[in-house]
Hints:
Thrombin, subunit H, two-stranded antiparallel ribbon, mainly beta, globular, 6-stranded antiparallel barrel, 120 residues
Amino acid sequence: MLPGKERRKFARYRPKGGTMAVNQHALGPVINISMGGLSFQYMGENSSKPISDILGIFLGSDNFLIDKIPTKIITDILISHGSSFLQTSTRQRSIQFTELSRSQRENLEEFISNKTTAIY
């Protein structure tokens, strides 16, 4: 592979402000999204991470929701430590979408086409 060459299969996009990712472990703003997955930040601690998870993507201002998306965690990294009185830190999780239903795929395509503001 050439240095600096993009490894990802899908182009990444910056979602409209207020786009959130939620699962049973975390809630936070989506940083980037593609047809293959997304990255989001959340407050939490590095605990035993599940191999896969179910995720929802929502944008309240546009009444938009894609729910029960099967995913696989690719990375979960520390962004910054919390203060001494808060025992949580800011983390960033990157996930890969797995086995999207036809409806989920269509909703994701619609979201990327209509609710993103920039290409990475």
